[in-house]
Protein 1
Amino acid sequence: MKNLVILISGRGSNMEAIVRACANEAWPARIAAVIANRPDAAGLAFAASHGIATGVVDHRQYPDRASFDTALAQAIDNHAPDLVVLAGFMRVLTEGFVQRYSGRMLNIHPSLLPSFPGLKTHEKAIEAGCRVHGATVHFVTPTLDHGPIVMQSAVPVRTGDDAAALAARVLATEHVIYPRAVRWFVEGRLALDGERVTLTPPEAQWLFVDEASVEENAKTGAQAVKAGASTHAGEGA
């Protein structure tokens, strides 16, 4: 039985997807805690309603990034995590914090890494004339939005798309690939080989959403965006 600690800053729609998948699919795991860096993070109410311990480490109460990370690590370690899951956590973490959870911290980023690290990924993809765009689940390393890739999803970029429409389409796929990647970790199927991730037994580590299904998938994402969930790991997804 693996202990998972999920970090959020806002609604935490990816956190919700993971919580539901863990329960519905009977993972050999428990969501030990959901911790936010903002006391008004809406996802805390969802977690509490599902019987999950919650906590707040308000970054505004600390004089610098290092002291905040120290307090956050203490709050996380109180739950003896096997895996730390970043699900819309709006803080850049220090190298020491990342190294503390090396090989056992996952993030999801709304682009096909290594393309478009950082913020405003959907705007960047449209401006660059991309024909496909997507999301990436990866192990966290000290370099922002970088690390061994576990799984990716890809969706079409349509003529006339704005950032919101593209964001909704991508977010719907995030809710599929992130729980799947976390489950693989829980089941002991992931192994790190330098910058590469191997999955045993092998299966597709990608999700392509074709034109026939993209509209239906986008509906869920659109609802989440309208409810205030951002699609960037640093913006509260």
Protein 2
Amino acid sequence: MAAARKRGRGAIVGVAALLLLAALVVGAELVARQVVPGMVRDAVVERLALPADHPVDVDIDGILLPQLIAGTLADVRIASRDVTVGAFSGDVVARGEAVPIRGDAPAAGGAAEVRMTTEQLRSLLSGIDGFPAGSVELAAPNVAASFEAEVLGASIPLGIALEPSASDGDIVLTPVEGTIAEATVRADELRQRFGAALDGLLQDRRVCIASSVPAGATLTSIEVDGDELVARFDIAGGIVADPALQEPGTCA
């Protein structure tokens, strides 16, 4: 009987120890969930020179403790609205994979998406000489702008639909059609009809954004989605440790 009682007490002690260990693990996980996202948020705010109180949401997938022990965060998602860096602004969502938390090792890579409103796009395009950025509207799948064209001494209102695309890290707006007196005409037909008179209006417009985004971010696509212009970027894994990739790029 005494042996049985001892075994019973031993089992109770063992269960209590396991419960205590589980409680400690859960507590440590909860603490990590409070601390680590805040550290990531502070790093993002500092590197993008955002106001200290700018809202930045950080979500880290999976159980944190094993990731902290391994020294790598498997999947990190960062989201913030109305982020402005240089002339480029919008709502940003970025993801990083296998992000190291110490040392100078690179991450596996990542991607980001920036959604711009019409007003934010107008602000970005305002730096193009002679471009009527204030008239810009989003008309999926194109960007629309209104010009005053001088043809044979007369001023003619002309609407241009521009197809957005990404090329060598730049935003490119390519004229695809125009509207004259409510009649829609393809861009190549406008060139044939008016020749050099519309050359200045029917040229591609390139917008370099390299100086407004980190050098480790490369623009890969851009499209109109409803009432927003969506720009997507590839993020180099080395951006987490390489200061050169964290700094803004350059425009030629």
Protein 3
Amino acid sequence: MTRVAVIGLGAMGSRVARRLADAGNEVIVWNRTRAKAEELGLPVADTPAEAARGAEVVITMVANPEALRAVTEGDNGVAAGIGDTALIEMSTVGPAAVARLAQRVPTMLDAPVLGSVSEAETGTLKIFAGGAAELVERWSPLLSMLGDVIPVGGSGAGAAAKLVANSTLFGTIAVVGEAVALADALGLSRDAAFAVLGVSPVAAQAERRRPAIEAGEYPPRFALRLARKDADLIADAVDADLRVAEAARSWLVDADDAGDGDEDYSVVVPRILGER
């Protein structure tokens, strides 16, 4: 049994806390909205610093770099209470935010995840672990309760790997949407379009997204506002000529600006099809 503090109880963090507790770990939680933390039925700390004190490891899983700074810095932040305790940063915040945090907490792993709420519930996330080899080895058994641990390098490598992974998500969903739009414009039926896509390199995503496209319903697994945040992180992370990434990002920006931020990121598809 490990004493774990989980900071940030959104759609993913709450499921991480629940799964770790159900696996027999001693879990204490903190969330900006206390009522949401109390819904889990686990001990609730008054501050992130209090949650960190006495824990063997602290997990942070928050929405963006600003939220990470808010819960880790200052008198009530994780860094103020963590001492020599390890910190596993599982948010998608980009390498710059991770580097800033590593200066305050040297015993840190950055371990963002690929997957959504269903994968968090079933322990089938892909976890990109960046940090010292001994820290990755020490905490892999705990992380393995949440999914498959993939070591990717030193500190910051996990954050970098997550942006690489997400860049493929955004490009693929835009390609699927534009392929269907092209089929519509050329007069192909939707059945024919999806039959074609089913033998193309995007077959798996086309099959996965077809029910939502045909129903016109996009229940959130990965909120579009968070996808846009990640696309912005990708754009800001490096000085590289990423034309496809920027084109995919433009669809996310348009949909978010139009008020679709709380829907699944695949809601860009009806916008591409001219249905919104």
